[in-house]
Amino acid sequence: MANANGNGPHGGHGAPSTAAEVSADLLARHERTGDMFWRVVAVLGILFVLGIIGFVMRMMDGFSDKAVWGYYAAMFAFILTTAQAAPMAAIAPRIAKAHWRRPFSRAAELWSLVGLFNLLLFIPMLWLLPSLEDGRRTLWFFHPGEVPAYSPHIWATLALLGLVAVGVALVWVSALPDLALIRDGGSGWRQRLAGRLAGRWIGTSEQWNMQYHRIGILGAFYFMMLVFVHFMITVDFAIALVPGWIDALYPATHAANALQAGAATMVLTMFVLRQWGGYKEYFTLDQFWGLGKLMFALSLLWFWFWFSSFIILWYGKKPSEQAVLQLIMVGPYLPAFYAAFILSFVVPLFTMIWNPLRKSIWGPTTIAVSVLAGAFFDRVRVFVSAYTVPGIGDSHVDKHAMELDVVKALPANIPDAADIFIIVGAIAGSLLVFMLATRVFPVVNVWEQRELLLYRFHKPFFRTEVQILGKRD
């Protein structure tokens, strides 16, 4: 349906030109499931089983030694940083009423369903976190008998549950018109499931107005909950485990890095759907260019947040602050820091300043791979290092300070077979959830593509023809 230049629905001549053609085209693509899809699902399933094997191997070690669970915690944080942050790539441009985000808005929202999988990964981490009765460092004001000793566990769980619930609600509300289309014109199990999910949606003016408002409210709540969850996780599952690590900015740093990784996740998702998913007409240069500019800006923000935290610890030069820098940056995890710094900041900055590279499809995709790799190494250096610190009550460790020689004696935690299985299984599990979700919800938002036809028309301008795009309000 695309022309030879690959022009799509946002600016091409080979895209469906009527609402009926858009619906028929996207629903037909949604119904069609090729052999390649199921082969990929099978491979991901096998890799996920390897992850389960790695988890069982870790369970055999018990929860007494939290150091062996460092890579497990890092993968939980990595999924939170990438998959669960990907919906922001659709939420933020939607607030700005940008039309170029329409083709990938549904794919971005579907990544929030991976939160259900990450919620399961979070459960073992609750057993690894000491209670407040153990005398560990915490931001919580704890007085025995006044607040529960497991307050961090309770509030972190509730925050993560809230993020997942809002993400699921966002997908469902956004997909209601598409589910009604499948209910009325589909077949088989998809039609039956869509009928249950669509409910009484018939497309009245009242329903459309309610949907627009609900999507906006849920998007705002998702952003707020995402930042709050990053705050809860970084404070209690990383900073509080390292005596002497006092950094009020790092929770915001963790959340800002997630915005960059979320944009990179969507660029890579679009590339896969374009190359192998059959959606070349919908994921065009506009979408890659738009997200590429966001990644470029967020790479500058990555450096600002990192340097703002680094300069406080480096300039203060308290013994405990020097020990923290030795642990997470210049000591045993220096290679991981170098990798994160180069892949998350240097590579995006000094490549995407070139407009021909940024205004392309392969350019942002290559940079997205670099950003995701950098995010992985950054989570490894923070969480794996934090989990290797001896617990409260062990020798040579004070809950408010940590000696430099204690850190220098800590070797880098090199991943073993169980850790590698967990890393591979966590990534495979996330991809598996996303791919299966695309069989239930159309991966390209049908009603938003139909709506775009109402706001777009071409008008003669001197010797050429330009595209005019309107705004809803």
Task: Describe the protein.
The chain has 18 helices and two strands. The protein is mainly alpha-helical and 473 residues long. The chain has one domain (19-469). It has a two-stranded antiparallel sheet with strand order 1-2. It is globular. Mean pLDDT is 88; it is low at 1-13 and 392-396.
Features:
473 residues; mainly alpha; two-stranded antiparallel sheet; 18 helices; 2 strands; disordered N terminus
What's the SSE blueprint?
Elements (H helix, E strand, L loop, with lengths): L18 H13 L3 H27 L8 H12 L6 H8 L6 H9 L3 H15 L22 H35 L2 H11 L6 H33 L12 H26 L9 H32 L2 H12 L3 H19 L2 H4 L3 H27 L15 H5 L8 H21 L8 H10 E6 L2 E6 L4
Antiparallel strand pairs: 1-2
Helix pairs in contact: 1-18, 2-17, 3-6, 3-15, 3-17, 4-5, 4-9, 6-7, 7-8, 7-9, 9-10, 10-11, 10-15, 11-12, 11-13, 11-15, 13-15
Q: Strand fraction band?
A: under 5%
Q: What is the number of beta strands? A: 2
Principal-axis shape: globular
Nearest-integer average pLDDT: 88
* Structure annotation, total helices: 18
Order of helices and strands: HHHHHHHHHHHHHHHHHHEE
- The parts where pLDDT drops under 50 for at least 5 residues are 1-13, 392-396
Rg, alpha carbons: 24 Å
Helix content: 55-70%
Could you give the distance between the termini?
A: 31 Å
Strand count, sense and barrel status of the largest sheet are: 2 strands, antiparallel
Spatial order of the strands forming the largest sheet: 1-2
How would you classify the helix and strand content by structural class? mainly alpha
Tally of structural domains: 1
